[in-house]
Amino acid sequence: MTATTTLDPLSDVLRSVRLRGSVYFYVSCRDQWSALAQSSSAIAPAVMPGAEHVIEYHMVLKGEAWVAVDDEPLLRMHAGDIVMLPHGDAHVVSSAPGIAPADEGGDEWLFRTRDDPKPIPVTYQGGMFTVGMGLPPQDCSAIILCGFIACDLRPFNPLINALPRLMHLPAEGVGTWVAPILEQAATEYGEQRAGTAALLQRVSEMVFVDGVRRYLGALPERSQGWLGALRDRHVGRAISLMHSDPASPWTLKELGQRVGLSRSALHERFVALTGLPPMQYLANWRMQCGARMLLESPTNVAAIALDVGYDSEAAFSRAFKHATGLPPGAWRRTRSFSGAG
pLDDT of 62-81, one tens digit each? Predict the structure, then answer.
């Protein structure tokens, strides 16, 4: 394995931050109902143990739902819609705005059911909450699949901060290949056949990737942030070049020549869009490539250092510890043992 990848930085980042998904709850709702979802950082130890960052999402299979996040406009969802919360904000999902959430008695039940087969059936009905039991679909006013996606934030994940707090994916925009898979995921809930858990995990990951692609495609021209930078003719090309060969001894002058800008113009444009100078971005990406190689290959640290553009193991180790707080060897042992973020 080498650090050379492709000219698709979004795919590079999605691969390197180790997405792990789970369709966790099958929620049956009837009459008036309301559910409080705590911040993902609060419930991560129960739903995705060891994860560094957790994204929650909901897909409406039947009926409608409202989603409320502090300081964000209320969102009305219809059957087939998906909402994602990339930053893990606490939120309320309900049959109508302003309904007080059901009393779930704290989060003890989340830890108690952590190892139960997924998705776990949950019912909200008339202000009451029940875990471990669902309603017949024909008796439900709304049915919602709730899932979680874990990813790494360190050493470098430019994607999460580039996403909004609330990402709404309307049903009519879902790709033709996504909808049948989502329907199959709902069917699998009732059947619990062999391989169901693995299928549902992959569905979560694909839903997230598809959602990010749709969000990127809908961004207006000259958008700020890392995703906006990918769409910029010059900065996007510079990022692609660095991703395609992070070990290359890139200079600001060479990158500028390759993308058709002067050094100063590239630097100014790059910082304006990403918040980072180009060479700092390159250093961060090299750390992310090194972290991925440490976890996915048995290659020794000295070889990885060369593969990501460092002249010596010592120089790479110093930079890696500065970025992550751990030397490469300790990082590999800790992350390999935990199997998570």
Answer: 999 999 999 999 999 999 88
